[in-house]
Amino acid sequence: MSRNRNILPTFAKVRPPVHTKKGKEEADACGRRLLKCAIDHHHSRIHRFNSDITACKEICKTRLHPTDFDALLEKIKSLSRAKTETKRTLLDFKLQRLEDSRPPTRTRWVVNLSNRHLSPEEKQVLSKGRLNFNVQRGINRAEFLAAAELGISLIDGPEEVKQTARTNIVGALSSTHNHHILTTGEKKILEGLRKDHSVAILSSDKGRSTVVMDKVEYDQKALLLLQDS
Fold first, then answer.
1. What does the DSSP 8-state code read for residue 109?
2. 207: closest CA among 117, 111, 105, 123?
3. What are phi and psi of 71, to 5 degrees?
4. Which of 209, 28, 30, 220 is nearest to 111 (CA)?
5. Residue 212 burial (C-beta neighbours within 10 Å; 0-12, 13-18, 19+)
6. Residue 137 and residue 145: Cα distance in Å, rounded?
7. Which of 205, 200, 209 is nearest to 126 (CA)?
């Protein structure tokens, strides 16, 4: 749940190596990877526990009377529900504390002039920029290789030197990976905003704000500008 809300638990927070935008982005990306690692680990443990529980149930079923076995299962389910409710309450409390400690959303970067109600999550995504901003930080490998090949063709030297340069460039590219700026939840929100054709989302004339307008009003204003002689 914390990952879908773009909230990092305390254990996954990484101190930036330098207090720059790049440093904070890298620390945040590292924290998200730590969170994913923890989630995968817990899923693995749950799968293993479920297998153990199934095996124990089969053993109990062969050794107990059916009535006693059903009574035992009901007792276990009752205890499990109580434990689950207690744990859920504790986790909800921790999640709320993390949300309260999170810096406020940059709502001043989002100006909603439409009739559509924007949720806090949608404002959070829009505050990062327009719908067409880059959701992956990386390089276009095809364009980079084409430019590199052009540069290699200008090298005044034997073919062996050029081939070595090609090998080194391909190796360097293979070791790099695109980094996703948006979480899975934010991507879904972004896709929902894209599919809403009743609103137009654009940048303001001044500043870096994102403006949300009703599509009808936007078309009317555009038509007035075209008709202005």
1. G
2. 111
3. -65, -40
4. 209
5. buried
6. 18
7. 209
Computed over every residue of the chain, the mean pLDDT equals: 78
Give the burial class of 162: count Cβ atoms within 10 A of its Cβ; 0-12 exposed, 13-18 middle, 19 or more buried: middle
Contact 109, 210 (CB under 8 A): yes
**Tokens of residue 62, six digits:** 């062969």
The pLDDT tens digits of the residues spanning 74-120 come to: 888 888 888 888 888 887 777 777 666 555 544 557 888 888 888 88
Alpha helices, DSSP H, located in 106-213: 120-126, 141-153, 159-174, 184-195
* C-beta separation of 95 from 1 below 8 A: yes
Cα–Cα dist 38/117, whole Å: 35
Shortest CA distance to 128 belongs to which of 31, 203, 184? Answer: 203
Q: Which long-range contacts (CB under 8 A, 24 or more apart) does 113-119 make?
A: 113/211, 113/212, 113/213, 113/214, 113/217, 114/198, 114/199, 114/212, 114/213, 114/214, 114/217, 115/214, 116/196, 116/198, 116/199, 116/212, 116/214, 118/212
Q: For the chain, give the number of residues.
A: 229
Distance of CA 209 to the CA centre of its chain: 22
pTM: 0.38
Contact 79, 162 (CB under 8 A): no
In the chain, domain spans: 10-101, 105-133+181-229, 139-177
Q: What backbone torsions phi and psi does residue 180 show, to the nearest 5 degrees?
A: -80, 125
